[in-house]
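Below is how a single chain appears once it has passed through the pipeline. First comes the sequence as given, then the structure the pipeline wrote out for it. We keep one example in the README because the format questions we get most often are answered faster by looking than by reading.
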Amino acid sequence: MNRYALCIGINDYPGNGNDLAGCVNDAHDWAAALKRRGFKVKTLLNRAATGRRMRDEIAALLGRARAKDLVVVQYSGHGSFVPDRDGDERDAVDECLCPWDVASQGPIVDDELAAIYGDRPRGVRLLMVSDSCHSGTVARFAPIRTPPTLASGRAPRRTVRFLPPLSFLSGRAAAGMKRRRRASAVPAAFARAAGRFSGLLLAGCQDSEYSYDAYFRGRPNGAFTFVALNALKRLPLTATYQRWFEAIRRLLPSRQYPQSPNLYGAAAVRGAVALT
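Resulting structure:
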């Protein structure tokens, strides 16, 4: 059994003025943690993480895997949504990831990811980790610019990892687009792919929330990444994905970072030993 990982971190978003700070550190931190657990890891950072390169590298990694192998695809960067064109989403939009060249080449939508995942050999296990905003309502397009203060009286340094669709869609494409607020549910495309294979999605927030770019001891990180990796360090090597997730949820959401992580996947897979 082999273990492979692709770690993607994008701070630099040319052409839209929405740069981040902690995503490259996230990718390095996930890569280090996975290497310690025996994974063969490749990283894509900033300008290397174009849409074409991300698609190609994910497909190549999955094409190399065989039944019972474990593949981790980790992404830290902006998330957003676009109009749903095939009618498979109850809220009328598709979740998407924002590559380095999203301003010129557009995003990667969940339907595309599902197609890539669906092409892998049967029995290949998948964990996708996404520290990004998966969604937001029209009323919450704009980044939060005046965060609440901490008990110490200092404001937490944080930025939302959400890229407004108008940053990369034409005005005509985005005009009138509304997202119906609903309880979080796994994106339909991922549900189809995960149902056919052993797949899990560990997400940094709910559909109606932001994931935060934050600072810990002066170092930028995703709030979810920082909590998830520190929780993992404290767990025994025999801990399951569900136990790992429960440890994460004891710390998030918090007053400083009001995001509620999610773990999507079949109960049997959530009960498997994490990252083995």
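The radius of gyration is 17 Å.

See the next section for the split statistics.
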